[in-house]
Recover the amino acids of this structure.
């Protein structure tokens, strides 16, 4: 039997990370088993499943590298097949019509549950069962003549030859109904596996209120697709060892449903940010520079390529997301930068700082060369000779040249800025805060 999994979203304009994690698990399982991963767009909600919403879904899948086997199936093209199946169930007495609730709005088609206990072995949760008394008949065609999710979902899985249905555990109750439908339709029942829900720190379903929740949010914030894919894959699954940063190939090789957890998976955005930083470090230099240059352009910074390349080399190890880049390098491209006012009060506006900066400026003016090595030696010598603490010298100098307390190493930063710019910035700082 060739394994076939599917991702069957209902496009609404945004793609939640929970839905995309389900797609990732279906993709990983299919690739691990040498099978096929299919896409079915459940687009029967005409008002919300607009062409734009569908394109957003496809773009998110493409961005994450979730390649699909075969043609996409759109559920709206299958409506007649769904209605024909309902008629067949009616003709066999496996369904009946009823004016549901006595509304007078027309008759629904209702599937007749077989009246027997139901059980199945879930690929993640293990054996599950439900007593017949707790399973009621249910609507499969509405009074307006449109098929309900249960019927359409099962029929389309049969049509696509799906062997493994891997979806969120909010569908466990539906699965008992679906098994009865498969049996009534004379079809093989696929294997089911229900993924744990994704929750916030309070154990509630993770939503936009908790922070970024849609794939597009993370893309806009500068996360890399490989990092988000890696993180979501580990949000409820483990390879069985301590590995966290994994290639697609490694994940495909290691993935099994048996290693998926049955308890809820909690989102940890700090861990995702750390993971993204690890992926940023692995980018080829040319790719990182192209990405960083694009961020500068978006921020309205027109930079000399050779100068920008030096700046990127200084900040690269500190970058966690692409969106960090422009805010991190602003002072390299503008002398009119803002100062960290808290740091100014704590580190600059103190007795003796004006004199210290004046002496540092004089030392820099006399250096034969102005580079990392010469400025490093000059300031260390000054610290030793003056008896001032290292921080009492370096902190004011860093604030003077960048406006902030942290950043790349001070001495290579000053080399990239150049002597003239550094001296001008010391003068500006003294004028603004120390006169």
């Amino acid at each position: 039997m060739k394994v076939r999994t599917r991702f069957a979203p209902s496009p609404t304009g945004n793609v939640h990370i929970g839905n995309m994690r389900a797609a990732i698990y279906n993709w990983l399982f299919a690739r691990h088993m040498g099978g096929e991963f299919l896409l079915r767009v459940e687009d029967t909600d005409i008002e919300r499943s607009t062409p734009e919403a569908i394109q957003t879904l496809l773009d998110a899948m493409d961005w994450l590298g979730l390649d699909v086997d075969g043609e996409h199936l759109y559920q709206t093209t299958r409506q007649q097949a769904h209605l024909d199946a309902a008629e067949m169930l009616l003709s066999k007495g496996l369904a009946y019509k009823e004016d549901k609730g006595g509304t007078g709005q027309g008759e629904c088609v209702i599937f007749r549950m077989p009246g027997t206990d139901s059980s199945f072995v879930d690929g993640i949760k293990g054996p599950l069962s439900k007593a017949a008394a707790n399973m009621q008949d249910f609507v499969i065609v509405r009074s307006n003549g449109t098929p309900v999710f249960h019927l359409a979902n099962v029929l389309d899985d049969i049509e696509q030859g799906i062997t493994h249905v891997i979806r969120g555990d909010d569908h466990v109750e539906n699965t008992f109904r679906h098994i009865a439908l498969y049996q009534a339709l004379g079809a093989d029942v696929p294997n089911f596996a229900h993924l744990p829900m994704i929750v916030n720190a309070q154990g509630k379903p993770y939503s936009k209120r908790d922070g970024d929740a849609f794939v597009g949010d993370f893309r806009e914030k500068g996360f890399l697709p490989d990092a988000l894919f890696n993180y979501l894959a580990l949000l409820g699954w483990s390879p069985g060892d301590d590995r966290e940063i994994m290639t697609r190939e490694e994940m495909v090789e290691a993935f099994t449903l048996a290693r998926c957890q049955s308890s809820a998976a909690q989102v940890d955005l700090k861990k995702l940010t750390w993971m993204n930083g690890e992926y940023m470090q692995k980018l080829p230099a040319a790719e990182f520079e192209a990405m960083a240059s694009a961020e500068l352009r978006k921020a309205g910074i027109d930079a000399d390529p050779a100068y920008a390349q030096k700046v990127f080399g200084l900040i690269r190890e500190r970058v966690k997301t692409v969106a960090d880049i422009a805010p991190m390098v602003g002072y390299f491209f503008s002398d009119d930068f803002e100062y960290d006012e808290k740091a100014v009060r704590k580190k600059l506006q103190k007795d003796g700082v004006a004199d210290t900066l004046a002496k540092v400026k004089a030392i820099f003016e006399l250096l034969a060369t102005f580079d990392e090595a010469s400025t490093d030696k000059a300031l260390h010598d000054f610290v030793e000779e003056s008896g001032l603490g290292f921080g009492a010298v370096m902190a004011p100098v860093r604030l003077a040249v960048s406006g902030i307390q942290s950043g790349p190493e001070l001495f290579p930063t000053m080399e990239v800025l150049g002597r003239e710019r550094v001296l001008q910035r010391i003068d500006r700082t003294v004028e603004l805060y120390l006169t």
About this structure: DSSP finds 18 helices and twelve strands in the chain. The domain at 4-71+198-270 is CATH 3.40.50.620 (Rossmann fold).
